[in-house]
Write a structure and sequence with these properties.
The protein is mainly β and 360 residues long. The chain contains three helices and 23 strands.
């Protein structure tokens, strides 16, 4: 998201220092905090059949990556395998030859290990309806793999160690069995022994399983269920809530501008301004001598935003380069440093911008 608001001052006849706040160039708001889903799916996988194995929930006990502080849940992806053939469900196929409609539920549990046995505590769940594809008639494999992605609103904090699970209703199992046969009896979760690419499996030899006879973290299948978890950082959400906004609600979103000052909430977060009050430029320019200017702005000091000050002498044909002025941090207040750059003005006009990127 680019914010095209420009601030400037002029001194004398020949020196124009223009401050253009271009940020945020956000590479990603959400970080992948756990992943053992292949980047490219195989046509099929070994899979766990819920109906045949009397399963209500299958999950995995994992550690989220320690390389990111992102813990506000935004999505969960699970790799499924369908073995349902359209020829076995003619009425549904005639209604939709692409697949059938199925409710699936992703669920997150925390794990309390303080007692003699671990206890799972419910954190959050999301039920969504998915179009499950039919198994191709000419498929030489025992099933057809696809991903189902659940979207969360980013308002719930998840623990660093958790159980990711998937549940859905089959004829005889699930939290609300259907009581009748359906293609969902041939819907499975993919199982693979692959090591996670992000985060870690806390017990690679076991899975969480809730079935007709037991609910345990010591379940065994031929690998681990395939999940990917994405989340956003704590910092923005904590900051916007401190101004009385409800995280995830209208007015509290990153792109929102509830005070109508032209600065998005994310910009105000990065530069320490107030999202409830009209602010002018978050960057100040002071002419400290006939040949020097000082540029000041607030910058977060908790690692939640990275800053790149840049200079350019010609916006039409010039290129941006690192602004290598003298940098100082004269004061610190809470989560913000006051950052100052001192530049020699010379005789050419200069353009200055701070590119700020939220760090997931």
């Amino acid at each position: 998201m680019n914010i095209h608001r420009v601030f400037g001052l002029r001194w004398g006849k020949s020196i124009l220092l223009l401050v253009s706040l271009i940020g945020f160039v956000e590479f990603s708001r959400a970080a992948v905090v756990f992943n053992n889903v292949p980047a490219t799916l195989d046509l099929s996988y070994v899979s766990h059949a819920y109906q045949a194995n009397e399963t209500t929930v299958l999950g995995n006990y994992v550690q989220l990556t320690t390389n990111s502080t992102a813990r506000y849940l935004t999505s969960v992806t699970v790799t499924m395998v369908t073995q349902a053939k359209a020829t076995n469900w003619a009425a549904l196929y005639n209604s939709n030859n692409a697949g059938w409609s199925q409710n699936l539920t992703a669920v997150i549990y925390s794990v309390d290990n303080t007692g003699a046995a671990p206890v799972l505590n419910y954190v959050v769940s999301q039920t969504q309806n998915f179009l499950v594809p039919w198994k191709p008639l000419d498929d030489p494999y025992n099933g057809y793999a696809f991903n189902a992605t659940f979207t969360f609103d980013g308002s719930v904090t998840i623990p660093s160690q958790l159980v990711i699970g998937l549940t859905f209703n089959t004829q005889n199992y699930g939290f609300d069995p259907t009581g009748v046969s359906g293609p969902y009896n041939s819907l499975n979760v993919a199982i693979d022994p692959a090591v996670p690419t992000v985060g870690s499996d806390l017990d690679p030899s076991h899975v969480y399983i809730d079935n007709a006879t037991v609910s345990t973290l010591n379940g065994t299948v031929d690998g681990s269920p395939l999940f990917k978890v994405e989340a956003t950082g704590y910092f923005y959400e904590t900051w916007i809530a401190s101004y009385g906004y409800t995280v995830g609600a209208a007015g509290a979103l990153r792109d929102d501008d509830p005070d109508h000052d032209g600065l998005s909430n994310l910009t105000e977060f990065a530069f320490g301004t107030d999202p409830t009050r009209y602010d002018h430029s978050p960057i100040t320019i002071t002419k400290t001598s006939s040949t020097e200017v000082t540029i000041s702005y607030l910058a977060r000091n908790d690692g939640s935003v990275s800053y790149e000050p840049l200079l350019n002498e010609n916006l039409q044909s010039g290129s941006w380069s690192a602004a290598n002025g003298t940098r100082t941090v004269p004061s610190v207040s809470g989560n913000y440093d006051t950052v100052q750059y001192v530049y020699s003005t010379g005789v050419n006009r200069k353009f200055f911008k701070v590119q700020a990127t939220e760090v997931p």
